[in-house]
Every structure is written in structure tokens, then in C-alpha cells.
Amino acid sequence: MSKNYVSKKERKDRQFGFLMALPAMIFLACLFVFPIIYSFGASFTNYRLVGNKGIDFVGFKNYLAAFRDPNFYNSLKVTVIITVGSLAVEFFFAFVIAALITNVKRGQGIFKTIYLIPMMVSPTVAGLLFRFMLNDDFGLMNAILKNTGIISSNIPWLTNEKMAIVSIIYVDSWLTIPFIFLLLYTGLASVSEDVVESGRIDGANRFQIFWRIQIPIIKPTVLVALLIRFMDVFRIYDSIYVLTKGGPGKATESLSVLIYRMNWNKYNVGYAAALSYIMLIIMIAVSLIIQRVSADKEDSGRRRRRVGGN
């Protein structure tokens, strides 16, 4: 009897909790789910913001048009270059900083605070800051390099095609190295001291301990950081728009910048929506490949250890 009474009370509590959360769920659905459904439907139409005589269903016409558009391939190439360059720079320096601070016994708090400062700066503010610092004529970067004798003439950081890509990678890395460092440092700090000490007893040096013991242990953390940063940098927009607006020419026009230009400059909402979902499909596919490759390597490592043990 008491069990039935408790179950009824629990059921009423759950119903009450659901009713209390229902307004927030409806709000979130309107805020997130509706735009997704709306934009997905728009990608199959000829919807335009200006000069639209009627919205007609065009099927996969927008998607097929994207694969015939040279601007799409240029933007995809730019996005891939920025993504690969940013990830390589960010993970290299984040690993170095995390490994150094993990081995520092005094002043860790001060070092962590200094390295985390860029996380407090928004991409738009950082873009404005570096747009002045990297200015060809009166930028602080060229002034420092010239006064120290490293260069004799100003470097066109934002007006040269190749240097503009390098500048965007530099700004994006400056912003996000602290985030990756925080994840990696947390993972390295969680590694048991007994495991590290056993490596020292076996004669491993610091690099061997870091590469062969600590890195395999924090592999899940590295994978999470890689996936988060890949999805973030692949849709990079803020820094590019503030620094170069996709220029010079279309040298730094990423997929996000192209989508913005198609939607708000060309007013072609249907085509912009199709480009957005193509970008989403690419991000999902690459993320699944990264996870699959990581899982296959882990399985092969387990098999090798099993064979070695036998």
C-alpha cells in the first residue's frame, strides 16, 4: 500500500516538474529548433530577401549550384587551410605550455592566470585590436620588428593574400590556445603521480614520460579538445570579418563569410541556407572520421598489447 502511495506521489512530482520546465522547453524550441527547421526548408526554395516574386520549391537546385560555384570551392579551401593551420599551432603551443606548467611546482596560479587572459577577450574585440596592431603603415607589430632590426620594410600583414591567412591563424590561435591549454593541463594534472613515478623508475626521461605515458592516458581529453576546436574553427567568421572582411580579394573568404555574403549582400536566402547545411554535413563527417580513426588506433593498440602479453 505504501509502495503504491509513494509511486503516485513520485508520479505527481514528475508531472509537476515537467509542467514547471515546459515554458523553458517551449522557449528553447522556438529559439533553436524552429530556426533549424525553417532554414532547412528554405534551402530547398528560391527564397530571396529582395526582389522575391514568390517562394517556389526547387529541390536540390541550391545544393547542386554550390558544387558548380567556384566561390564555394575557394571558400572551402580557405576554411581548410585556416582550420589545419590553427589546429596545428594551437595544439603544439598548448601541449608545450601545459607540459611546462605541470612540471612547475611554484607559481602555477600566476602562470595559469596569465595564459588564460586571452579567453576573456571576444573574437570581435581581438579582431579590432589586431587590425590596428597589424596595420601595414602604423601597426605596432611592424614598428617593433623594424626597431629591433628584424625587418627593413613593413610587412603587409592584412593586404597580402598569404600573409592575411597567416594573420588570421595567428589571431585565432592567440584567442584559443588558452582554452586548449586548460583542457590539456586538467588532463595532465589528473594523471596519477604513481604512474609517472613508475616511468621514472623504469628509466624514462621527461619527454618519454610525457609522450608515452601521459599523452595516452589523456587521449580522451585530447580528442574532445580536437573535436570542439575543429567544429569551432571550421565555422570561423568573427575574426575574418573584422580583420579582412574576406579580402584581399577572396583570399580569406571562409565558408561562413561566403554564407554571410550570399545571405545579406546577395539576399539569396535559399542558397545561403544550402551552403550552411553543406558546411554542417562536412563538419559532422570529419568529426565522425576523427572519432573512428581514434577508436581504430585504440583497438589496434589493445590488440598489440594483448598479443605482447601472450
Could you describe the 3D structure shown?
It is a single chain. By secondary structure, the chain is mainly α. It has one domain (60-300): MetI-like fold. The protein is built from 13 helices and no strands. Helix 8 packs across helix 9 (206-217). The N and C termini lie far apart (58 Å). The mean pLDDT is 86.
List keywords for this structure.
MetI-like fold; 75% helix; 13 helices; globular; 310 residues; mainly alpha; single chain
Give a short summary of the structure.
The chain has 310 residues and is mainly α.
SSE map:
Blueprint: H1 2-42, H2 61-66, H3 70-102, H4 108-116, H5 123-133, H6 140-147, H7 161-189, H8 193-201, H9 206-217, H10 219-234, H11 238-243, H12 255-265, H13 269-309
Write down the overall mean pLDDT: 86
β-sheet strand percentage:
under 5%
The CATH class label is Mainly Alpha
* Number of beta-strand segments: 0
Mind telling me the CATH superfamily name?
MetI-like
C-alpha end-to-end distance: 58 Å
Named at the architecture level, the CATH assignment is: Orthogonal Bundle
pLDDT < 50 runs, ≥5 residues: none
Counted up, domains total 1
CATH topology: MetI-like fold
- Count the DSSP helices: 13
The helicity comes to: over 70%
| Rg of Cα set | 25 Å
Shape: globular
The ordered string of helix (H) and strand (E) elements is HHHHHHHHHHHHH
Structural class: mainly alpha
Main sheet summary:
none
